[in-house]
Write a structure and sequence with these properties.
This protein is α/β, with parallel strands linked by helices. Helices cover 16% and strands 33% of the residues. Helix 3 packs across helix 4. The longest helix is centred in the N-terminal third of the chain and has 10 residues. The radius of gyration is 46 Å and the shape is rod-shaped. It starts with a strand and ends with a strand.
Length: 538
């Protein structure tokens, strides 16, 4: 055995002959060649030989460089190589070897693997010499977090070329549908396994529906997963589709303001997590809707609907033409629910299929309503010239703006607030019989009334000398004004049965004198603080 030192550059085959002839150290500079050819030509060399090797060409297999590294104790010059080919393991080993000198940056790595973990590829991408990783052969990525997957999508740590139609497994427990959508847009026809994801956060319904509907991919989801949707406007079709897919998971609507219920749909919003009040818009079909526990607004269209408004103090808006017994409205557990008409009411209302309602708001137009007793207690006229006829029942009515008319029987016990403008109460039926002069007290409570019509009221007294008395305090209460004026409409015959004190208590007007009365049609009398105007109708 002998050591050999060659002073001139020698061919690999000549040096190989020498290394095959001795076990001593051979020191020589080898003529440059490809890594593959050098490996073939230096079959006898070992890592104890001091061979100076220069690899030419622009590409090399990582395994060839590793094998060459085992044939010399001198670092291999592979700086001409711009494309390194091999498995992740081989490439990682080649780049990690101190016996192989590569380019300093922008190296392209072409992987032979067909599957890999995300962390192995990202570890390779973190090497400062790597610029591009050609993943043409990769068809499956496993054990990937969302952030790792997005690194591939965004070419963050390296440029990932030819990465198409790949399957990917996401291991996070929580992810947004938007991030999953980004991965879906990148992985072509590959499948996405998100069975570990039990919470989908801060997502739009459209992005979640890509998962539900396997849009452009096949999604393997968890059997039960929670979803948080951040849309402001959602449809029942969207929500029902997601609800049918996420098992026993919870659907949270974090920003929802409006739910549009599509024609013929059934939706139970009480099963969703909704903390704020929302607007629920009905369609023209036959819908079944259950509301939330908050105070929501329902806008009801045509069709035969079954509406349970749920908890909270809800408002249901509807056109008069669409309100009939084909609909069922259960106002639920709220204590101040309101049914409001968008168009003028004309005639009676059948509340047979309405339950749990506290307030009825008429339209801002001129309404004409007959109250029969099955309506809610509180009724509000919001504007226009409204005509209220109370045939039965006890109500608390606020006429609102407009010159309103309230027609009711004397015995009816209701509370009537005429509101603004000039309002009239018309009484029918008969009073209780009186045997001595008695203050003209009504069964109903009146306020903000400008006109009281008793011309169709039967005033019952024991004799013609017994009268109903109108006082200053009564007029104050009925008009809602300490200096108010009330116009009293009555017949000449009725005037024999009323009296009042004029000019602050100095003259009694209307006291029966045995043959005639002393009231004058059109006259206004001073009762002290208030005034009374007489309107004789006949």
């Amino acid at each position: 055995d002998y050591a050999t030192i060659l002073s001139d550059t020698a061919s690999a085959s000549d040096v190989n002959t020498i290394t095959g002839d001795t076990t001593g150290v051979v020191t020589a500079e080898i003529t440059a060649d490809t890594a593959a050819q050098l490996n073939i030509d230096l079959s006898n060399a070992t890592d104890t030989d001091a061979l100076t090797l220069t690899v030419n060409g622009t590409s090399a297999a990582a395994s060839d460089l590793i094998d060459l590294d085992g044939k010399t104790s001198v670092a291999i010059n592979a700086t001409s190589i711009t494309i390194l080919i091999g498995t992740i393991s081989a490439v990682t080993s080649a780049l990690g070897s101190s016996g192989i000198t590569t380019v300093a940056s922008n190296l392209t790595v072409s992987l032979d693997d067909i599957s890999a973990t995300a962390s192995d590829i990202l570890s390779l991408a973190s090497n400062s010499v790597v610029g591009t990783i050609d993943m043409n052969n990769i068809s499956s990525l496993s054990n990937s977090s969302i952030s790792q997957a997005l690194d591939f999508v965004g070419d963050t740590s390296a440029t990932y070329s030819n990465l198409t139609n790949y399957d990917i497994e996401i291991t996070d427990a929580s992810a947004s549908a938007g991030d999953i959508k980004s991965i879906n847009n990148d992985n072509g026809t590959g499948a996405i396994n998100i069975s570990s994801v039990t919470t989908i956060t801060n997502s739009s319904a459209s992005d979640v529906l890509e998962i539900v509907n396997d849009t452009n991919s096949s999604f393997d989801t968890a059997a039960d997963y929670n979803v948080t949707l951040d849309d402001t406007i959602l449809s029942s079709t969207q929500l029902n589709s997601i609800d049918a897919n996420n098992g026993t998971g919870t659907i949270t609507l974090s920003n929802a303001t409006t739910i549009n219920v599509d024609s013929g749909n059934t939706i139970d919003l009480s099963t969703y997590s909704i903390s704020n009040s929302i607007i629920i818009n009905d369609s023209t079909g036959n819908e079944t809707i259950t509301g939330t526990s908050s105070s929501d607004t329902f806008n009801i269209s045509s069709g035969n609907d079954n509406i349970n408004l749920g908890g909270g103090d809800d408002t249901l808006n509807i056109d008069y033409a669409n309100f009939d017994t084909n609909d069922t409205f259960n106002f639920g557990d709220g204590t101040d629910d309101t049914l409001a008409f968008d168009t003028a009411v004309s005639g009676g209302l059948d509340f047979t299929n309405v339950s749990g309602l506290e307030n009825l708001n008429l339209s801002g137009e001129s309404d004409n309503i007959t109250l029969s007793g099955d309506e809610p207690t509180n009724i509000n006229g919001l504007g226009g010239v409204d005509d209220f006829t109370i045939s039965s029942g006890t109500f608390d009515i606020d006429g609102g703006a407009g010159n309103d008319l309230f027609s009711l029987d004397f015995s009816n016990i209701s509370s009537i607030n005429g509101g603004t403008n000039s309002d009239t109460v018309s009484l029918t039926g008969s009073t209780n019989s009186i045997s001595s002069d008695t203050e003209f007290n009504l069964s109903s409570t009146l306020t903000n009334i400008e006109n009281l019509d008793i011309s169709n009221l039967n005033l019952i007294t024991s004799d013609s000398d017994t009268e109903f008395e109108l006082t200053d305090d009564l007029i104050k209460a009925w008009t809602g004004d300490t200096n108010g004026n009330l116009t009293l409409s009555l017949t000449s015959a009725q005037s024999d049965f009323i009296k009042f004190t004029n000019t602050g208590g100095t003259e009694t007007i209307g006291e029966y004198n045995g043959s005639t009365n002393s009231v004058t049609d059109g006259a206004t009398y001073d009762l002290g603080d208030t005034t009374l105007t007489i309107d004789l109708t006949s």
